[in-house]
Design a protein that fits this description.
Elements: E1 3-8, H1 14-27, E2 31-35, H2 38-43, E3 50-54, H3 62-75, H4 79-83, H5 87-93, E4 99-102, H6 113-125, E5 129-135, H7 139-142, H8 145-153, E6 156-159, H9 162-169, E7 175-177, E8 201-204, H10 208-212, H11 219-234, E9 238-241, E10 246-247, E11 250-251, H12 252-262, E12 269-271, H13 277-285, E13 289-292, H14 295-303, E14 308-312, H15 315-325, E15 332-334, H16 343-353, H17 355-373, H18 376-381
Parallel strand pairs: 1-2, 1-4, 2-3, 4-5, 5-6, 6-7, 8-9, 8-13, 9-12, 13-14, 14-15
Antiparallel strand pairs: 10-11
Helix pairs in contact: 6-8, 11-16
Length: 383
Amino acid sequence: MKIVLYGNGGSGNHGCEAIVRGTFELLQESFLIASEAVEEDKKYGLEKLGDIYEAKTSKVNMVQLAKAYVKLKLTGNYTDMDGVPYLNFIDNVRGKADLALSVGGDNYCYSNQSFYAFLNQAYQKKGIKTVLWGCSIEPDIIKNEQVSRDLKSYEMVVARESITYNAVKEVCSKVFLAPDPAFFMQDQKCELDERFKDSNVVGINISPMIISNETNVGVTYENYKKMINYILQNTDMKVALIPHVVWSQNNDRVVLQKLYKDFEENPRLILVADHKAPELKYIISKCRLFIGARTHATIAAYSSRIPTLVVGYSVKARGIAMDLFGTYKNYVIPVQSLEQSGQLIEAFKWLEMNEERIRIHLEQVIPEYIKTGREIKNALKKI
């Protein structure tokens, strides 16, 4: 197979990085990477996995641009104008790839589904078959006629959890269920703070994204703050504040640094620096418990058999937990449900109380979950 990966936001989001790395480890083939942030992807080492190209360029076909402009003026639809800068790369990749994987994960959960439909069609027009790879989509979005039509046009849709799988199956027969590609990414040893030595550490991740989805302003941060205070006052565990996205416009470190300062740099608090995704997974694997907002931070924990509580906002968190545990109750707290400032304390208590049972369950489930997921490689080869 000659493969191109597209739709990935850049490795400053270490979830995006983990998807690419996990895909490489699963398929064991080098590929072309259509990057939204070439220097960022190189910084974190993705050039070792394949050739990296600018996904969009300023070099555009003037006829295509004119058609897109007319469409904008007549309909108010920006999709083609947004998509035209991507067409040069797609045209140049013809003959170099026969399969294009759309690897954005939950791109279809946001408001620009028509843009990804545009890219899907653009690759197909060049004779390149497309696969929607490791996706999560809210069931209500799938009911949209344009979205369902787009999903049917993919050669294959690979859902990363069963809620999406069952919803897509209602409109598209070419759907497969497999773990998020990040489950296949191996960790990489790095230097650890000495306070990790006894593994008596609670890993904590919070994100601006999760805060933006809260229904009560300020309740998410207050819940995290009170939970950390509870851990420091009622246990002997240390707390590691772990960022997983460091984009300037969406930076976990901003919130984590505020938490760190709120506790006056308590010696039991560890403020973890930025690392590439495999190193972050290694750090997370050395935790005793993990509470996370970023999906791929929690995947790093799950796949390392760490009892994990997810503060989620969408179908992906609920679906992955259901596939691993048979339910998402107690394993996922939808951020929209946070109303009282002590809810995360109660969730943490449950996690701590059930710690050993959860760890044993993950030890039993994860190997088979990953082994079964590897079968998707054979399905890809048949395309």
